[in-house]
Amino acid sequence: ETSLLTEQIASNASIIVIAGPKQDYADVELDKLRDFAGTKKGHFLIALDPSKNLPKLYDFLFKEYGVSVNYDIVVDPRGISQNYWTVCPDLIQHEITKPIIEKKMIGLMFHCCSLTRDTRAELDHKVLMKTIPQSWAKRDVDNLDGVQFDKGIDAQGPLELAVIAQKSDVASGSKAVIIGDADIVGNTYIAVGANR
What we know:
This protein is of the alpha+beta class. The chain has helices at residues 27-38, 55-65, 98-102, and strands at residues 15-19, 43-47, 67-69, 73-75, 86-87, 90-91, 109-110, 115-117, 123-130, 136-138, 155-156, 160-167, 175-179.
């Protein structure tokens, strides 16, 4: 673990993992992340829970990788484990997901948020996980009143839950896997199905 406020990123680091941050990043930290992505062509694994407290980090992800993290909570109408906030995502064929698909494993996400991609010539995006079409995202997170779909407010599925973004401009080779759930990589659920 490295504190970017007081330490530099190790010169031999090739990937930075950001999992479930609780507070936003300072400008000095974001400058180091930008340098890591640009000059060093470093990679990221970023797993985020629904939060409105990370505007600078979200801005970094949008500007650098063209991915917006939505402040919402995804609902899976199948009610897995009697919990509509537990989502069993569809895995999309990719070298990252291929072994999981071949072994017919399932992953579970808990209280996850959706992602939106911005199409740009200098970015290549691939969706890794998405919801079933019958799911939706509750967009008024601060005033949740049940799980029902509110037309005109909520977003209808299928929704993107994990994306890999690769830069093809000056920072060619820098990749970021962005996941709309921190629990999927956390200790509590790491042994559940494909999460491991």
